[in-house]
Amino acid sequence: MCGFLFTIGRKEEIRKNSDLFKKSTELLRHRGPDFEKLITGDNYMQYHARLSIVDLSDRANQPFQSSDKRYSLLYNGEIYNYLILKNELKNNYNFITSSDTEVVLASFLKWGSDCVSHLDGMFSFVIFDHITNKVFFARDRFGQKPIYYFINNKKNTLFISSEIKPLLKLSGSSKFENTAIQEYLISNIYAQNECTFFKSIKQLKPGSYGTYENGKINTYLYSYNESFKKFDFFNFNKEELILILKESITRHLMGDVSVGLATSSGLDSLTLLGLIKKSDKSEKLKKCFSLDFGKKFSEFEDAKKSIFKLGMRTERVEYSIEDMVKDFEKLVISNEAPVGGLMHLGISKICKVAKDFKIKVMFNGSGLDEVLLGYESSKISLKEKRNNLQKKLRFIDGTETNVLNNLNKEIFYNINDSSNNLILDLLLNSKLPKNLHMLDRASMTHSVEMRSPFVDNKLSHYCLALSKKNYFNNQITKLPLRKAISDIYPGFSWNVKKKNLNTPQNKWMREKKGKEFFGDILNTKNKFDNELYNKKNLLKSWDMFNKNKIKNAFPVWQYANIYFMNKLKSNNN
Predict the structure, then answer these.
(1) What are φ and ψ of residue 343, in 5° steps?
(2) pLDDT tens profile 187-239
(3) How far apart, in whole angstroms, are the C-alpha atoms of residue 510 and residue 191?
(4) SS3 for 138?
(5) Can you spell out the DSSP letters for 177-232?
(6) CB of 405 within 8 A of CB of 541?
């Protein structure tokens, strides 16, 4: 896992931006503390910071060049089928490393832009042709690894980066992208399309690649969305699902470093642990880590018992109200977008603790709730045959909030939901894109790689093709998974009703430290107040929340996020 920054333009512009470019690279060092290198050419600059996972030797460092020096590669991610591809390419390419980095470049040299259809993994990369000055850049199917770009048409200069902060500094951008802000405030989603929260800075959409030549940029979807729609409904076969799950776990255990696992007492993370323990690469898993929010919100003891039954012990990672107040601004800045809630903050602390244990790679159980409709809200939506934009947001603790009351309604009249299919919406538009974005930043801010074995192309296609009757009954969700894992661990109870992980977020917001923290932010005057909010109503709802007249203060949580994001864009200009 790594970070990179690239620019190409006229010689005078590259020379002019040279010092600022070098300064901007400092904002990416956390993504790759093992090695960094900056190369400057007449009309380009390229920087790479490496977190060594596969082939730890210096020969696999980047920028990585082809043997004839024509092409250079900046790459971030893991290619899980790289050994298969390497064997396929060995007659066409003379490999000098054992890294997946070199396989990415060899794949491009063999297949050109079609290389992305051969790569199975999480990735973003830039390939620069030093002869034609053509740039090729790409992103994995689900968008697990980030890639952003900014183009200055007047100066004919392109910048590409693994994170947004360097681009804010280099572009001088100082405006929010209102469409993205509005969608977040109403629907609590982001990261699903080319828009970021910052005007002029775009992300390459998941499952896309782009080219830049003669001052023009073009992007292309490599048929991922369309391929999802080409399936036939069939009934569940647990042997087939078990095989798909085991194959994915084995692929994700590739690498030359130890692995940790974020675990709870929930079905998904315990399934992941159970599958890892049955793998022939199980020795790579060294530590489990479980969050503990304390008192009534702790499920640590349940997690500890279940994890022990599966053959592991887990480290307790305590998270307190003091952590929330201390971490909030830092996490918004590192996330470059709103933080989702206490779970996001807690995952970041888990990664921090994992790093203290010398763990470079962490696993998590994200993805199953999307492909198997594990969310309670998904079950309700499917039953009611509706998947439209809601005026109310429903949370995992059962509370709801009417977001529109606290907003300036005049600017929100034209927001519409674009998906007619609930599962595709969860995978490509709403839940998963935002979750993957947060997981990347929460982990990489501590120089830890996060892997999600259930975010898998083959698994997603299989689950999408299941008849909907297979997903759940009146009591429990994710029936295919429960049936499959029960065959592997028949003595373990896998059929308990889904427990939504409840956090003390609302409770802490009412306590003295939380009330002061959010109250101080809410009572500041900001330029975006009138642009986005009905501040009078928002202050009123905050007062009602603190008097226990309403259960949820999520609009205030959102306001705090916008407040710190405003500081982020101001501080980088």
Answers:
(1) -65, -40
(2) 899 998 899 999 999 999 999 999 999 899 999 998 555 555 555 566 778 89
(3) 30
(4) strand
(5) -HHHHHHHHHH---SSSSB-SBTT-EEPPTTEEEEEETTEEEEEE-SHHHHHT---
(6) yes
DSSP H or E stretch at residue 566: helix 554-571
Cα angle for residues 393, 384, 413 (degrees, 5° grid) = 45
CA distance 7 to 5: 7
- Cα separation, 403 vs 392, whole angstroms: 6
130 closest CA partner among 199, 207, 40, 49: 40
**What are the residue ranges of CATH 3.40.50.620 in the chain?**
230-392+417-488
- Rounded to whole angstroms, the Cα distance separating 319 from 12 reads 50
Tokens of 133: 């000055």
Is residue 353 within 8 Å of 319, Cβ to Cβ? no
Q: Does domain 230-392+417-488 have CATH number 3.40.50.300?
A: no
β-sheet bridge partners, residue 40: 45
Domain covering 2-222 assigned CATH 3.60.20.10 in the classification:
yes
Pairwise CA distance, residues 53 & 320, whole Å: 32
Q: Could you read off the pLDDT of 387-417 as tens digits, one per residue?
A: 443 456 655 444 566 665 665 544 443 333 3
The per-residue DSSP string of 305-325 comes to HHHHHTT--EEEEE--HHHHH
> What contacts 16, CB < 8 A, 6 or more positions away?
none
Residue given tokens 């048929």 in the structure block: 223
Angstrom distances, CA of residue 118 to CA of 38, 113, 115, 157:
29, 10, 5, 30
Q: Which two tokens stand for residue 449?
A: 């790689």
CATH 3.60.20.10 intervals, the chain: 2-222
Other residues' Cβ atoms within 10 Å of the Cβ of residue 424? 18
Structure-token match 């101080």, residue found: 520
Residue 188: closest CA among 535, 552, 497: 552
Q: What are the helix (H) ranges across 74-164? A: 82-89, 100-111
> For residue 317, which of 283, 336, 342 has the smallest C-alpha distance?
342
Confidence of residue 419 (pLDDT cuts 50, 70, 90): very low
Q: Do 451 and 440 contact (CB within 8 A), yes or no?
A: no
**H or E stretch including 50?**
strand 44-50
Q: What is this structure's pTM?
A: 0.91
Sign for the pseudo-dihedral over CA of 164, 100, 440, 47:
negative
Backbone angles phi, psi at 212, to 5 degrees: -135, 120
Residue type, 408: N
Q: How far apart are CA 264 and CA 257, in angstroms?
A: 23
Structure tokens at 62: 């980047």
467-481 burial by CB neighbour count: b if 16+ within 10 A, else e?
A: eeebbbeeeebbbbb
